[in-house]
């Protein structure tokens, strides 16, 4: 009898286990989660710990406020693009650069899209952002930034057809060109901007019939009335069509003849620039020409910055600038093809006082005692090997060649 009861008990346990197994293995098509539900569940999961996040009072990711862009190297610029990257890692063609933002620039996030990471193994997410009203290069300009470069991100929806994306602040802006006064060869470009945002720093690119690319650029700062202009930013004696552009806004073409009129009395002198060494082209006509027999000095580049308390390291290549101020490459001051590294030799023709710069860390005191730390407001006028002229701070020159070297004033 006991044996029978034991057998019945064992049978009941086996039946229960078998039933549980069937329930576990059974798949009910009516309750299978849909792809939309799975996506919603993934997006509803708690935000992982991330030093870039700004959390609200409840410990969750904030849903409002300004974010900022940061680059791995604070000296680099963060690119604002017209679209997320496509299907290929590192692809940039077809995803034009709208703006370049210094590290720390405030932005307002609007929505996100998933494209492709610039580098394999990183986030595929991109944020549609708008430059903040204050402290940004061009307030109101919008575009896409890779998510890994956005700090203090807020919660935003996925971009879709219903998302109201900001319109460009330049949608009503206009650029015009007329033939200006006679130059050394050809004529000056007389440029006018209209209906631009006040305070906008606009880089004007000069082009002519000899090349599809700009042979020079210069900067205009828009006034309170939304206008700006200059009559001698560049000139060309190349026959045919001439035009200028600011961002993607291009002027109508203006044609002038092959004849190069004599230089007008009192017209500014014309030192060379980037590709302006070609006959009949110039870039900075308002600078004085060098003296017939200039005093020159050959100086050696020392392109080093501090690296902690005692060491020095090679910095990004130095370059000749059209202005005596640092970090102005994004505003078009760099002369193309004039990059320099430590040990290079260049010809200094003059000296001038400008903005003080340093080869140290402004945001840290770790290098205050570094023996290589140096700051100065003295700049050398440098003549490049092809005749172009620009400025280079003595901070980027070796010790023995600093101090002016008895060169004349620029």
Cα-to-Cα separation, first versus last residue: 118 Å
- Low-pLDDT residue intervals, each spanning 5 or more residues: 22-32, 41-49, 87-94, 260-279, 283-293
Helical/strand content category: mainly beta
The share of residues in extended strands comes to 25-35%
The pLDDT mean sits at 76
Number of strands: 23
SS summary, helix count: 2
Largest sheet, in brief, is: 5 strands, antiparallel
Give the neighbour order of strands across the main sheet: 6-5-4-1-7
Helix proportion: under 10%
Shape: flat
Order of SSEs = HHEEEEEEEEEEEEEEEEEEEEEEE
Radius of gyration: 31 Å
Protein described:
- It is a single chain.
- The protein is mainly β.
- It is 8% helix and 32% strand.
- It has helices at 2-25, 35-44, and strands at residues 67-69, 77-81, 97-102, 106-114, 125-131, 142-146, 150-151, 174-182, 187-194, 201-208, 211-221, 228-230, 235-236, 240-246, 249-250, 254-256, 281-282, 297-300, 304-307, 311-314, 345-358, 375-383, 389-393.
- It has a five-stranded antiparallel beta sheet, with no helix packed on it.
